[in-house]
Structures are given as C-alpha cells and as structure tokens.
Specification:
The chain has about 120 residues and is α+β, with helices and mostly antiparallel strands. The chain contains five helices and three strands; from the N terminus they run αβααββαα. It has helices at about 30-35, 40-50, 50-60, 75-90, 100-110; strands at about 40, 65-70, 70-75. Strands 1-3-2 form a three-stranded antiparallel beta sheet. The radius of gyration is 26 Å and the shape is elongated.
Length: about 120
C-alpha cells in the first residue's frame, strides 16, 4: 500500500507583505497575482471604452501586442502607458464644444484695440 500525503509541502505560497522576503518562484505578492500581465483585444477594448473600429485603427498601433496562436494578446503595461500618454497630451486643454462668450468678447475687443 502506498502512503498518501498529509498535505504538508516544502514550499509555501506568498500570502502577504511579510512573505515577499522569501526567495523562489512562489514568493510573488498576491496583489500582483490578481492582475494579468496580458489581456485579449476584447478586454483591452472594454478597458479603454472605445469602439471596435477606433481600437483597431487608432489605439492598437500604439500598444505592445503579440500573437499567441490565433489570439492577439496586449500587455497591460502598454495599456497603462497609453493612458498616461493621453492624459499628458490633454492637460490644460478644454474639451470640444462652443467657446466661452468671455473668450469671444476678449478677442473682439483685442482686435479693435480697446482694452477691457
């Protein structure tokens, strides 16, 4: 008859901040295990909340991706960098829409040479 294991193992899984000091492949903090390193195109598109056409034409060329079999995988780090780039580009800009009336009045008075 063979003896069955009682469930005790020589290695331990990381379960918290104190376990980060351990060496080996299993000593990964649990908060890092919860986030995937890569996502599919559908998930990336949902994360960025863009349409399918916009994603393939504008967003995907700016992301790091690779094929795994027939599936394209996109790194989550490249999605985060894309968002950071977009935020850096848009700082200080107003959104689309009608210009404020005060801006139009200032431009009109400046073109006439009158100070407000």
């Amino acid at each position: 008859m063979s003896q069955r294991s009682t469930g005790s193992f020589d290695c331990e899984f990381a379960s918290g901040p104190s376990d980060r000091k351990r060496e080996g492949a299993l000593a990964i903090p649990t908060e890092q295990l919860a986030q995937p390193l890569v996502v599919s195109v559908a998930v990336a598109r949902r994360l960025l909340a863009v349409s399918n056409a916009h994603f393939y034409t504008k967003v995907l060329p700016e992301l790091e991706s690779y094929h795994e079999g027939r599936t394209r995988r996109i790194t989550l780090a490249s999605i985060k960098r894309y968002i950071a780039r977009r935020l850096a580009e848009s700082t200080g800009k107003r959104g689309r829409g009608r210009p404020r009336k005060i801006d139009a009045q200032i431009k009109a008075t400046a073109s006439q040479g009158v100070t407000p």
